[in-house]
Structure formats: C-alpha cells, structure tokens
Amino acid sequence: MDRLIALMGFDKMEDFLLKFVIPVIGVSILLFFSTMLFLSLPFWVPYLFLLGGIIFIAAYPVILRELKKVEIHENIHFFITYAGTISTLHINRTMLFKKIAEGRKYGVISDTAEKIVYLAKAWNLGFARTCRKMAALAPSRIFGDFLDRFAAVLDFGEDLETFLTEEQDAVMDDYETEYKKSLESIKMLQEVFISMTISIAFGMAAALLLPLIMGISIMVVIKWALLALIVMDMLMVLLIKGFIPSDTICHDLPIKDEGTKRLHKSLMITFPVSFILLALLFWWNRLPFLTNLAVASTPLIVSGLLAVEEENDVFRRDKAFPAFIRSLGGTIYVRQGGVISSLGALRVHDFGILNPMVINLYRRLRLGSDRFKSWIYFAGETGSNMIKNFINIFAESVYLGGNAQQIANIISKNFTRLLSLRKLRLQLASGLRGSLYGALLGFTTTVYMSAAITKLLSGMFSSAFEASQVQGEMASIVSSILPPIPSVDMFTVNIYIGVMVLVHSIMSALMVKLVDGGNKYAALFDMNLMLWLGALLGWGVPKMANWAFGTMALG
Q1: How far out from the chain centre does Cα 144 lie?
Q2: DSSP per-residue codes, 223-243
Q3: How far is CA 220 from the centre of its chain?
Q4: Over 80: is that where the pLDDT of 487 sits?
Q5: pLDDT tens across 110-169, in order?
Q6: Burial 338-369 (b: 16+ CB within 10 A, else e)
Q7: Mean pLDDT value of segment 362-383
Q8: Is 250 helix (H, G, I), strand (E, B) or coil?
Q9: What integer is the mean pLDDT of 183-199?
C-alpha cells in the first residue's frame, strides 16, 4: 500500500486520506443527496454514486500503477540501449542519470532518473542507496531489478561501461519475457471478446422473442443490445490500449515519407467522396441501411490499401537498418569519427530500400545542414518509429564522442531482437483478424436470423389473434393466452442492426491495428470488408429465412 501511495505522489497515508480519499467520498455523498432530493430518478441511481466513489478510491491507485508500468515497458528497451551507448563516453554516474532524465524522453524512467540525481546530490543519500529506494517503488519489475543491480555495482565500484554493456542482454531478456506475457494477455482478451460477442448475439436471439411472450416492444431489446455491444467494444479497446505495451510501427514526426504523403492525399479525396456517396444513397433510399454504408465506404478501401502498403515499406526499411547501422558505425570508427566521409564511402554499398534515405542524409550533412535535424529527416523519410528512436540514440552518442563501433553493435543487436519479437506480435494480429471476422459472421447471422424468426412468429400470432376476434368465445381464450402482440417495424430494426454491425466493424478493425501497432488508416480496409460482410448477410439471411420458413422477407 505504501508503494501505491508513493506512486500517486503522496508522502504518507495521512496525505492520501486528506487529499484524495476524503474529497472523493465528499463528492460522492454530495451527488448522492443531490440526485435523491432534487431529481426524479429510480431509487437505486443515487447509490450508484456512492458505490462509484468507493470503487474509484480502490481502483485508481492500481490503474495508475499499471499505466506507469506499461509506459516503462514501452520505453525500457530504448532506455537500456541509450544507457549502453552513452556509457562509451566514460561519463560518471551523475552525468549518466542527467542524460537519461534530459528532455523526459523515456517518460517514467526519465522522471525516476531525475529523482535519483536530486536525492543523491541534494539530500546526500548517495546513488547506491537512492537506487535501492527507487527500485522498491518502481511499478515495473524489470526496471526495479535493473536499479537493484545498478546499486550493487555502485557499491563494488565496477566500471559503468562494462556493467551497462553486459546489462543489454539481461534487460532485453526481461523485456522479451514481458513482451511475450503481453501477447498472452492479448490472446486472453481476444477469447473474452469473441465469447462476449457471441453471448450478446445469442442473448439477442432469446430476447427478440420477448415481444411475443411478454408483449414487450422489440425496440427495447434492440436498444439495450446496442448499448451492451458499444460498452463491450469500447471496454476492449481501452484495455488493449491502456494496459498492454504498444509497439508502434510508424513514427509521429511531422516529416513524412513518400508513402505517407501519398496516403494523406488519398484521404483528402476518398473521405469527401464517401460522404457525398453516403448522402446520395440515403437520398435515393433504394438500398438497405447497411448496404448504403458498405457502398459509401468502399472508396476508403483505396486509402486502407495505401496504408497497408506503407506498413510493408516500413517493415522492409526496418529489416535493412541493422546492416546499415553496423556498417556506418564500423566505418566511423575506422575513420576516427568522420561521419560525413563515412556516409560518402557507404554510398557505393547497396542497402536496398534505405539507399535513397542514406543519399539524402549524406547530401544534407555535406551541405552543412544542422546535423541533428539531418538525422531527424532521415528518420522521417524512413517512416519507422523504431528507426526514429534508435537513430536519435546513435547520432547523440556518436557526436558526443562515443565509440561508434560499440554504439552501432549495441543498437544493431537490440534492434534485431525487437524485430524478432515484432514478428510474434504480427502473427498474433493475423490470427486475431481471422477470429474477429468469424465472430462478426456469427454475430450478424444470429441477429438477422433471430429478427427474421421474430417477424415470422409475430405475423403468425397476429393473424391468429385477429381471426379469433371473429368468434366471441375464442377471443376471450386467445386473449388470456397471448399478450397483445406489438407490431414489429423491421425497417427500424434493420437500421439498429446496421448500426451494431457498423460499430462492431469499426472497433474490431481498430483492435487489430492496436495489436499489430500498424498505421491506423489501414483499419479502413478491414472496416470496409466487415461492412460488406454484414451487408451481404443482411441481404442473404432474410432471403434464406423466407425460403426456409415460406414467409415474407424482411423489410
């Protein structure tokens, strides 16, 4: 508990109670009495505010800890690579932590490094003692173990460069273990998501019969099912995004490569065309609701395919990068630090898809452009998030006077290892995509079939009820058995089902991109295919029901 309180920024339990617990309880009680006295709501609604306050107090520290843990795991591999490369400068421990904290480039890790410097220097605690204290408070086991080992090295006086070079394998091994655990978590969430999707579908199948049994309007069932589906989809997206470390493929720099520029130009065309097409289709009003959505979103497939092509180009650049950085580091070492001359010598070598970027980098440096901006432009032209982070580490370490060959070897080794882990993630994303398509197929078929059966039985019961009104005695008997049968507006029902398929398609496509870390616009491709799958089922299932049950087709 003390670790959670410290993680939230409170010094002791009393501060936590006074500054967090009491204000939250006070707001909950205020909302409780406000809703109870001034609003005409069901009796149980005010108690939800009290329950929500208690849950928030209990859950917030745990959620905050998990979010910080995820942030550390998203940066730990970049941090240890940077620490290893910067140690080749033979700097002291104070400068090492100051460089790690500089610019807050590693999030929670940089914050921790800043605190270590402050406590060790301003409070005279010493680096070894401070590292042990921060290790006990670290939300990540990987980072905590590293700080413990670092403290031991400081006690024994081991050389920092030797220690941090050896730590590359130790930290990367731990990172690999956590990475694979996150993949297992994704698999578990995948199974839960698919199970819940099918459960909602079968729940709707049973609930759609309620209008015939209890006289409840079918629209009540549809609206609650839509709400349940939206809540489930949003919850799964938040869990994947918030609690599983991401592995972003494309960078977020303002400098874009040619593939990204082409993608953005296509979006400026396809989105307006889709909106215009959607407006025309609804004005024409000849096709079913879901078919209108599928047809209108079809132009977005072009942008989705361009995004997929951009992802593939980034993959190829990532694969070529380790060989390039090793060659560059070795050449700089041989030439005693001549970066420009080393790049000039490397131009004759074939680095495949990286060749244009290498030539542009050489020209910028040769013309006297700002050297760090030149490397940023190189990273921007590759489109890769991993290259962006590792090239910044390389450029800073080399220009500060580090051993270029050692720096390049550390970067190349860790980069190659990350590429191997990414392959596992992409395989998982591919399996997830297939599972989501299957879940959508089962969900849509079940819902449309249930609606068709409800329409059929509603027509049969209504006909029986009307026929019984002709005979006085039969009317009283039928009225006692059958509740009043509400009319089933299949046009409105189909709209609600179409909205369900739309929401589910968008969220499913987004989940795939969150898992594989790819370009978010590539989700447009999967979204459109899912919409077309739903539209075809929306047309085919009622036809099949009409053929199987010998009754009218749905609206």
Answers
A1: 26
A2: HHHHHHHHHHHHHHHHHHHHH
A3: 33
A4: no
A5: 999 999 999 998 888 889 999 999 998 889 999 999 999 999 998 888 888 899 999 999
A6: ebbebbebbeeeebebbeebbeebbebbeeee
A7: 91
A8: strand
A9: 88
Strands of 51-123 (E only): list them.
none
Start-to-end CA distance of the chain, whole Å, equals 59
pLDDT value, residue 554: 40
Going by C-alpha positions, the residue among 502, 17, 440, 422 that lies closest to residue 193 is 440
* Residue of 257, 234, 508 whose CA lies nearest to 377: 257
d(CA 173, CA 321): 22
Which amino acid does the sequence have at 363? R
The partner residues of 250 in beta bridges, in order of sequence, read 384
Amino acid letter for position 283: W
Per the structure block, which two tokens stand in for 230?
């939206």
pTM of the predicted structure, to 2 decimals: 0.88
Q: Which of 541, 446, 496, 441 is nearest to 200 (CA)?
A: 446
Task: Indicate the helix (H) or strand (E) that contains 412.
Answer: helix 404-468
pLDDT over threshold 70, residue 408: yes
Rg (CA), the chain: 30
Q: What digits encode the pLDDT tens for the residues 451-474?
A: 777 777 766 666 655 555 555 555
Q: What is the DSSP string of 469-508?
A: TTSHHHHHHHHHHSPP-----HHHHHHHHHHHHHHHHHHH
Predicted confidence at residue 552, as pLDDT, reads 44
Nearest by Cα to 413 from 85, 70, 86: 85
